[in-house]
Structure formats: C-alpha cells, structure tokens
Amino acid sequence: MIEFLSPVSESILDLLETLPPGTLGKQIRIHSKKGEIPNFKGVKFAILGIRENRSDVDFMGNDISFDQYRKAFYALYPGNWSYDIMDLGDIQKGESVEDTRFAAKQTISTLLKMEIIPLILGGGQDLAYGQYRAYDDLGKMVNVVNIDNRFDLGNADLPFSNKSYVGKMVVDQPYNLFNYSVLGYQSYFNSPEEISLMEKLYFDAYRLGEITSDISIVEPTLRDADIVTFDATSIKDSELSYSNSESPNGFDSREICAISRYAGISNRVSSFGIYEIGGTSTRASGAMLIAQILWYFIEGVNFRIKDDNFDDDNYFITYKVPIDDEVLTFKKSNRTERWWILLPFISNVNNKLKSRTLLPCTYGEYLGACNQEIPERWLKARHKNEV
User: Which Gene3D superfamilies match (predicted)?
Assistant: First the structure.
C-alpha cells in the first residue's frame, strides 16, 4: 500500500502550526514523509485522496488537489469521538487510469482488511469502481449506494467514464454486486433506457423529491449498504458553487449532511467516497461543506449501536403478517426501534445469498403489510436472490 501513497502537501503541514489546540488537524495522524506511515493502532478512519480525473467526460487536462478540503476539515473540532483518524495523503495519477484504479483497489482493500474505514476524496466518480473492486477478496456479496443525480449505468461495452462505470460493476467478474441503489436521481438527467434497466435489474432508486420530502426514507437503504459513493454534483449549485456543477436542483447542505450521518450510523458501511470534487470551488464554503459531510459521517460511526444480533430473541419483537400465500416476518429492535423484514432462503433454487437474511425496512412498510401490501424492497430482493 505504501508504494502508492504520496504524503500530505507542505502547505497543509504548514497550516498545522496555525491551528488552535483541539482541532482535528492537531489530532489526526498524518502521512507527512514519503515512505513513513504513522502507526495504525487505534485508527478507525483513513482519509485517502485519489488525484485522477482522466475518465471524466468533461476532462480538460487539469490537475486536481484536495488541499482546500483538508484545510477545511482540519480546522473543525471533533465531536465526542472514541476513534482515531489518519490522513494517508494521495494516490497520484498512474501511467494510465487503469493503473490509478488498481492502486486505489489495493490501498482500499488493505484498509478494509485492517477494519479501517477509508474516507475517499476522488476526482472522477469512475474511481468508485476501484472502491468496489477492493471487496473482491472479502468473499461476500456487497451492496452499493450512490448519492447521485444520475444512475451512471452507461454501456458496459464502451470505455470507462465517470457517467458509465456502474455497468462494469454489473457485468465484470467476479460478480460481487448484490444490490445497487441511487439516492436523489433527477429524471431529466437519465434516459428512459437507463430507468427501465434499473427496474429490470431490480435495483433501487429514489427521486430527489421523494427524499427531500422525508429525509428519513434513506435510512434503511443506507443501513444495508457496504459501500457508499457520493457525487458532489448531486448538491445544488447554489450550495456548492463548483466549476463543474451543472444543476440548480439538488440536495441542500443540511440534507446531504443528514444523509451522510445516516450512512455513518449504518453498522454495515465500511467505505465512504466523495467524488467529482476536482473542480475549484468559487467559495470557501464549498470546501467547508465537503469537510462537514466527512464530519457527519464520522459522527454517525461514533454513534453506531449493534442491534443486528438476530440470534438473541430478547433483543427483538417478531411480527408475522400473512399476505396471500406468504407469511412475512418482521423484526423490531428493542434497543433502537429499527425494523427488518426476513428474506427467506429457498433451498431448491439458485440463491445468490447462502442463507436467510434480514433486510432493513421501515415501520411504515410493516403497516403497509398489515394492509396486504407487500414491501417493494422485499420483492426486489427476492427476485435478485433467485435470478
């Protein structure tokens, strides 16, 4: 891993001298000298920049830097956190984009095996493919949640781009992808063909308006995620003011920070990437917003509660709801009041999952089942499991 990493820049190291005591910059373990990584003992989070944007459809040959985001993040004060943070510095551009993705995969995979959560700052969002491939050696199916105004499916037969990398996740071996969800898509940015393909693959998609009407609907989806990727252009332009931002509509700063905290609270999320941040912010507040998104994710992780030990019935209330020929089994946590629905294991079909599993759901979906409405997430998960 160390061979891929460049230290944090001198300008950031100089900034440390001016920061007040107690700020994050005074507490983070920093890769400050080439080839010398600080001790990982007690580290839960690792900031990792990936300075690659050559697969961006709007690539103009510009180099990118994450200094402004580090400056903003280092200046914040931590919450009541019990975990340490390390800044590993950056992965520089390789000879090819494929080389950069390989370096990202290897570095992230090493961190995952150490049970350290990578906090990725990236250029083009095609780098999320490297984030996904880092799970190849972990031997399990994974769920990817993308906070984006586009599906980014594209044509898997065409070259990589930051708008067409998810198709590669679907068709490339090894087949690790169980579910892909998009939070905040905007219909006019997505072709009817892509919308239809999302439905045929039984993937989940929530419109921007659905989420802004009730931000809490994202919680079950994020609770079931292993990988969270976030396209910064899903934030409305007036909030971010980036040169590559294109839409007046999108999440506002409060909404995106709430989503980030939900991602952190999830006991399952093990990597978090913010992409499309290669453009220069016209205001310092844009960099500060990215820093606060990271802050809220870390805050969420520090408030994780283990409530998914389903072997102990003392921690749950079980509800069985008959619908037509099915009996749906719901479980409610006594500790957090979060809900799950059982996805049964059927022995005589080709299951992607090797045992029964419980899908996060909402209390509203339980009430719907009581009114003879089968939850859509249960139907999609069952179809995917048996395809």
Answer: Ureohydrolase domain
